[in-house]
Amino acid sequence: MLPGAWLCWASLLLLARPAQPCPMGCDCFVQEVFCSDDLATIPPDIPPHATDIVFVETLFTMVETRAFGSNPNLSKVVFLNTQLRHFGPDAFGGLPKLEDLEITGSSFSNLSANIFSNLTSLRKFTLNFNMLEALPEGLFQHMPALESLHLQGNWLQALPRRLFQPLTRLKTLNLAQNLLAQLPEELFHPLTSLQSLKLSNNALSGLPQGVFGKLGSLQELFLDGNKISELPLAVFSQLFRLERLWLQHNVITHLPLPIFSSLGNLTFLSLQGNMLRVLPAGLFAHTPRLVGLSLSHNQLETVAEGAFAHLSNLSSLVLSHNTIAHLPAGIFRDLQELVKLYLGSNNLTALHPALFQNLSKLELLSLSKNQLSTLPEGIFEANYNLFNLALHGNPWQCDCHLAYLFNWLQQYTDQLLNIQAYCAGPAYLKGQVVPALKEEQLVCPVTRDRLGFRVTWLDDRKAGSSWDLAVQERAAHSQCTYSNPEGTVVLACDQAWCRWLNVQLSPQQGSPGLRYNASQEWDLRSSCGSLRVTVSIEARAAGP
Ligand SMILES: *[C@@H]1O[C@H](CO)[C@@H](O)[C@H](O)[C@H]1NC(C)=O
Ligand SMILES: *[C@@H]1O[C@H](CO)[C@@H](O)[C@H](O)[C@H]1NC(C)=O
Ligand SMILES: *[C@@H]1O[C@H](CO)[C@@H](O)[C@H](O)[C@H]1NC(C)=O
Ligand SMILES: *[C@@H]1O[C@H](CO)[C@@H](O)[C@H](O)[C@H]1NC(C)=O
Ligand SMILES: *[C@@H]1O[C@H](CO)[C@@H](O)[C@H](O)[C@H]1NC(C)=O
Ligand SMILES: *[C@@H]1O[C@H](CO)[C@@H](O)[C@H](O)[C@H]1NC(C)=O
Ligand SMILES: *[C@@H]1O[C@H](CO)[C@@H](O)[C@H](O)[C@H]1NC(C)=O
Ligand SMILES: *[C@@H]1O[C@H](CO)[C@@H](O)[C@H](O)[C@H]1NC(C)=O
């Protein structure tokens, strides 16, 4: 026999070796067993070397006392969406290596403390999305090694004061999506190792002053989606290591000034979706490590000059969806690291030219959905990295005052994506896209003391050439703007004077060719009435 053929035969033999017996309705892998059939009981013949067993959508309702006693090497037992309703005393007894126990998506509403006795190795315990309404005080009594406890998505309304007493090694506690309305002040006091606490989406309306008083190791605290309206002055005062604090979607109306003053390690804070009206100066004076701060969807009307002082590491600031009408010139002065600034959906009517002057790292700026009609000269002078600018939803006034923004957009137009800024006025430019205009269209009415014409001739020799007669001056807005139906001739007048005339003629569109001397009349209308304008052009012999 050839050596190659012999090898092949040997490996076939290996494959054909009779598999370890696997219970009906289960699949057995090296050390894992998955059971997902209509099993009526826990199978008695689970392979003895199994370390992990997972039941998915099985039909049995009961785990008897020491049900897994013949599999002492099990370290992980999981029930997902099963019909479990009853547990015998010491149901998971005899599993000295059990580290991870999960019962998720069943419909039991109560548990007795003796079910989980002697789980001395258990490190992770998950009881998510059941229908638990209450927990007995001694439930975790025999779980001294527990590091991670998940009780998300149950119907818990209250918790016994001493429930977590034995869990001094706990690092993660998830109580999100329950119906907790109140917390006993001492509840979390034993949890001196806790790093992450989730209380999101409960019904908490307030917090006892000392509830987090012993959580000196906490790094992450979720309080979002509750009904908290006020926070006690010192509620966070012992959280020296806290890095992330989520307070979004509550009904907080005001924040006492020292509330964040112990949080020197805080990097992310969300206050989105509350009812804050003012942001006092000094609120963030002791949180210099903040990197992300969201205050969107509040009712902020003003923001104090020093509100963001010292936030020299802040990278993202979200102030959108408020009613801010004014921003102090120096408000962003200390934010040299700021990359993203969201100011959309506010009531801003004007911005100070120095508002963004220290923000040399700014890449994204949203000014959308405000009341801005123009932006001041030089406003983006220091923002070398700005490439994402949202301008839509503002009543841009496309006149001479918009020239800075227009030129800035022209210069960076390759980098800027999708500038949906439309002119709200003057009437004849309404609806035009700002970056698509020609600079000579951005004109202002002349004033009484400076009446003069600047005539711009475009290249007369090209087909379809046109010429513009435009007058530029910074001046008060006109009261009446007359125009012909096509919008090619516009005359702006106030009560006493007509101050501005704009004529666009295109020889190919039926207007007379204006090569040299010419004269033309138009009937113009406005809401004030109608009038007739005659323009005569006289060609000069030479000169520009
Ligand atoms: C359980 O694990 C130990 C140590 O890992 C091993 O010696 C023993 O054979 C295992 N028991 C079974 C039934 O597989
Ligand atoms: C809940 O209580 C009922 C009645 O006391 C009991 O029959 C049932 O086994 C308990 N369920 C659990 C999961 O402990
Ligand atoms: C708890 O487990 C230990 C070691 O596995 C065992 O010796 C002891 O008898 C158990 N106690 C109870 C009450 O089950
Ligand atoms: C930040 O946390 C470290 C431990 O991670 C701690 O030593 C330090 O005091 C904390 N800083 C402040 C300002 O609280
Ligand atoms: C800002 O971030 C840098 C780099 O992550 C860090 O070295 C510095 O200490 C931080 N500044 C403050 C005030 O925390
Ligand atoms: C903000 O603007 C909205 C829409 O323009 C207006 O209804 C509201 O009254 C303004 N609020 C304030 C405080 O100015
Ligand atoms: C920010 O700008 C102000 C005014 O120009 C300047 O005095 C200050 O030094 C700048 N701050 C930083 C941190 O760059
Ligand atoms: C335009 O009119 C001026 C004065 O009315 C006249 O001197 C000049 O020759 C005219 N030019 C042309 C090209 O008709």
Automatic annotation (TrEMBL):
Major place of residence: secreted
InterPro entries for the chain: Cys-rich_flank_reg_C (IPR000483), Leu-rich_rpt (IPR001611), Leu-rich_rpt_typical-subtyp (IPR003591), LRR_dom_sf (IPR032675), LRRNT (IPR000372)
GO cellular component annotations of the record: extracellular region
Taxonomic superkingdom: Eukaryota
Annotated compartments: Secreted
Residues covered by the LRRCT domain: 394-445
Gene3D superfamilies given in the database record: Ribonuclease Inhibitor (3.80.10.10)
SMART domains, sorted: LRR_BAC, LRR_TYP, LRRCT, LRRNT
Record GO terms (molecular function): carboxypeptidase activity
Occurrences of domain LRRNT (ranges): 21-52
Keywords for this protein: Carboxypeptidase, Glycoprotein, Hydrolase, Leucine-rich repeat, Protease, Repeat, Secreted, Signal
Pfam families recorded: LRR_8
Endpoints of the signal sequence: 1-21
Function per UniProt: The 83 kDa subunit binds and stabilizes the catalytic subunit at 37 degrees Celsius and keeps it in circulation. Under some circumstances it may be an allosteric modifier of the catalytic subunit.
Subunit structure and binding partners: Tetramer of two catalytic chains and two glycosylated inactive chains.
Protein name listed in UniProt: Carboxypeptidase N subunit 2
Source species: Sapajus apella (Brown-capped capuchin)
Lineage per the UniProt record: Eukaryota, Metazoa, Chordata, Craniata, Vertebrata
